[in-house]
Amino acid sequence: VLEKCFTEFQQKQLDKKSTYHIILKNRGYRAINSLHKKTIGWATNGAENAVEKGRFILNQVNELATLDWDSYWASLNILKREDEEKIFTSHIQTMAEIGHQILFYVNLLEMVLSNNTDEQQFIVSIEKLNNLFHRITTVKNNIFQESESRLVENLKSQVENNFASFDEERTIAYINKKIQTLSYDLSKLIPKVSSMLEEFERYGDRTILFDYVVYYDIVDSTATKKMKTEKEVVAYRNNVRRVKATINDFISAMQKKAREEKEEIYCWNGDETSTNDAKYIFFSSAKLGFSIRRIREFIDRLYSLSTSEISFRTVVSPANVFYSDVFKRFQRTEVEGEIFWEHYSRVHKKFKDLEETFNKHKNLILVIGNDSIQPQGDNLKLKQKIWEGQIETVIAAAYFKTIGTLWIPF
Fold it and tell me: Are the C-beta atoms of 106 and 1 separated by less than 8 Å?
């Protein structure tokens, strides 16, 4: 709404009266006014004062009701989290400061839009802006700079000289510049706080944080390249189905064993019983080195199923290979980790290029890592390393150089 307002003003197409009412009815306008009221309540212990007021009123009616009232609020103190306050209070204060500054400049814009449409409304808007300015400074006295203070005083003086020196164009340009700056400041803070909220939400809710990820795929499982006759295709696809069933059986057995030892193996892109050609298997263990042992066991059993017709491609990586968490929330099926999924897709593209380069080898394993966790190909006891290099992945502003090693398993 604000961008449209500023653009139409520059193009001299702004309907001030209509825009004025659109802003007043806008959800964003209600939201920043609500922020103001909540912040005042927070800064002045409004919740505690409301509880005391409720106790006083109930005490005049029924002392037993007062006991229930006190018990209710005492029970809510169980939810008080000092760790939450320690992490988020400073960010709440910063975002509230930016929100209040935006509120001030939106009210200044509201005042300008009321100019030349209703002089009395213009005067009321100036007084409203002045009152808002002083209310905000009672919440935090240094939230505004000296320039804002002078601006308010200058507007008050305009009333006395009938707005003779009021420059509407410069004022709107000034508001536009300020709101753009504040929006940019807020845009930098919101992703940071969102990430912290997501991380905090995972504490204590039985979220599983994964250590390693294995991706495997049956090469040409649909027989689009290898077979020529219908009979050959049918026979091959029957073999593939039997291989899938065998893989499902030993993954299920590994999962059961992991659960007995308080570890986690989780299949995604289809559970352990699905017939998908490709799966991601996520490993989690509190014991150092156990995930690698599980992966080694999986790779040994997977590639033991390789034949002259059936072969596999596999990628092994630490879950934090892109310096971010990969996790599954309690009672959800999806594995989350936006940065991981975005950059991992680029690794698959590199793997495809490597397959074409090393096409004489049927079975390949790409093992990746980063500067902190080197590729674990040696610990997986693979036969031969045939390539080593960097895999660059770029998504928007995020850029990683992943270390990759390509192996033949046996």
Answer: no
